[in-house]
Amino acid sequence: MTSTARSSRQSAKVTQLRKGASLEMVRLACPDSAQASLISESFGLPVIDSDGIRDLHHKIIVDTADSLNEGLGERAMQIHLQRIVGSFVGSAHGAGQFYSRAVTEARDATAKGSNDTRDEDIDGPVGFDGAAQRKREFAADMGLQAHALRCAAEGVVTAYEEVVGEAWKPFQRPIDNPGQTVDRKAAELQMAALS
């Protein structure tokens, strides 16, 4: 086998990409401002200053870029801000997923509690909340946290676009042959040496 045939076969491999969280994924997983207000009202929790969080995080990124402007080139600035924005978006997405699980658990516990014949799901003694109530309150707390992180992510994404001049996209990292074991890789290298 000639080296050109071997190299063209290797370059024809399909490279899979590990996708990072996008802002759309965050918006699907985390409560918006209207839902966060409803959660706050329903559970007696503080109302989140959504616009304040967005504005502050927007300002943080713009100020960071201004302070680094003389020390970083255009491409280095873009890479640096890409990483920072990606961490905010990833954090918000993780919080949104955790919130979704907490809502599911609260929903399940509440549904079980509505069955009058189940002794294990009845409320606790007077003065103590039942398990379903605690799960609903926990889900509400997680919802407000996810919303706050969503606002922070939205703020840094808009700042990225303002500073860099293009819309932020999640970084997609190539996956090195998923599922391929070390033994298989070694065997391929050995066979390539024999060819």
TrEMBL record:
Name listed for the protein in its UniProt record: ArgG
